[in-house]
Design brief:
The chain has about 350 residues and is of the alpha/beta class. It has a domain of about 190 residues: Vaccinia Virus protein VP39 (Rossmann fold, 3-Layer(aba) Sandwich). About 25% of the residues lie in helices and about 10% in strands. The protein is built from twelve helices and seven strands. A seven-stranded mixed β-sheet has the order 3-2-1-4-5-7-6, sandwiched between helices. Helix 1 packs across helix 12 and helix 5 packs parallel to helix 7. The longest helix is centred in the N-terminal third of the chain and has 12 residues. The chain is elongated. The N and C termini lie close together (about 10 Å).
Length: about 350
């Protein structure tokens, strides 16, 4: 028989919470997220505005005392209904990392998270990260898994594509769910019957009126797009709709970039358009820039807007990003765990156990 729970209400603490993608999804699953912890104070207003009742704790996890939540929020140790979530920054293990020395700071954060698991012994543990945390030669993942095993947890881990779980985006991630409860078998959410595409969530029929590059939306909808210079506008005009790429203007000297001359086989997604009938590519922190990936709108001559990027990350359309810049909002959005996957992951706990 499954181990008995103390009450019917699950609660969670979301480490490395950012602007609250995981928190939002867990709350949608009926889980009381007590707090989110993050070193980036710029995410605090966004987190708390959209997740009322969940407190943003602006702290460095490495310096946070293990008993902090026990003393300040009454969090009990060995609580079968407690979920600890650790979606640590993943620059060190990312294949697109460009500043290895800076990313070194993120290398051991998973083991800092493990310190709280050891202290609180929660009923459940959730982890999300880039696939590189499995394949990188210097990964701390084996050490983390041994720690879980030593503490009495069973777990399942998998590299999943979030497009199979209701997120309209191709986003491969490492995902782990663990429990120390006897008689409970952890599992991942059931895969969706339909893979959502860009057309399923964007475009006029979904409330996105056509806009031009540089459009500023002063409402909370935030359908704001970055501006483009005259040369980039000409490039966009020559890029075929629905999946076109930079090769369509590669032979025009005044439009071709020097770094791509004679290199048609690299970075082909840069300056490319999304396809209507496919999930979007992975939404990164630079999705507002056409030069950083296949982030151009399928038809309009611009990069996707802040709200479009958030929608592809499955944020609710009333989720407001409290920042003063496009780059700031995109950073919060691109770093987030997609809310819909978080909701489904949370429901594997709330409905099955």
């Amino acid at each position: 028989m499954p181990e008995q729970r103390d009450n019917n209400r699950f609660k969670a603490i979301d480490f490395f919470c950012g602007g609250g993608g995981m928190t939002c999804g867990l709350r949608q699953a009926g889980i009381d997220v007590i707090a989110g912890v993050d070193f980036d104070g710029n995410a605090k207003e966004t987190y708390e505005f959209n997740n009322p009742g969940s407190v943003f704790i602006h702290k460095d996890v490495k310096k946070l005392r293990s008993n902090y939540f026990e003393k300040n929020y009454g969090v009990q140790r060995n609580d079968n209904n407690l979920i600890l979530v650790g979606c640590s920054p993943c620059q060190y293990y990312s294949i697109i990392n460009t500043d290895h020395s800076k990313a070194e700071l993120s290398k051991g954060l998973l083991m800092n998270f493990a310190r709280f698991i050891e202290y609180y012994k929660p009923g459940y543990v959730l982890v999300e990260n880039v696939p590189g945390i499995v394949t990188n030669k210097e990964t701390v993942l084996p050490k983390f898994l041994k720690k879980l095993e030593k503490l009495g947890y069973t777990h399942k881990e998998e590299i999943i594509d979030m497009s199979q779980y209701g997120v309209p985006q191709s986003r491969r991630r490492f995902s782990l769910i663990a429990t120390r409860l006897s008689g409970v078998e952890v599992s991942f959410p059931k895969k969706a019957e339909k893979v959502l595409t860009v057309a399923d969530v964007l475009g006029e029929r979904n409330g996105f009126t056509p806009i031009k590059a540089g459009h500023k939306d002063t409402t909370d909808f935030q359908h704001t797009a970055a501006g483009l210079n005259e040369v980039s506008l000409r490039r966009m005009a020559l890029t075929p709709h629905n999946g076109g790429n930079r090769l369509s203007w590669a032979d025009q000297k005044e439009l071709q970039l020097a770094c791509y001359v004679g290199k048609d086989d690299i970075f082909k997604d840069n300056y490319g358009r999304m396809w209507w009938d496919k999930p979007s590519p992975t939404i990164t922190t630079k999705f507002f820039s056409i030069s950083n990936g296949r982030f151009a709108h399928p038809e309009e001559d611009r990069a996707i807007s802040i709200r479009e990027g958030a929608t592809l990350q499955s944020f609710p359309q009333n989720y407001v990003f409290k920042t003063n810049s496009i780059a700031g909002a995109a950073r919060i959005i691109g770093n987030a765990v997609p809310c819909e996957y978080a909701r489904r992951l949370g429901e594997t706990i709330t409905t099955n156990y």
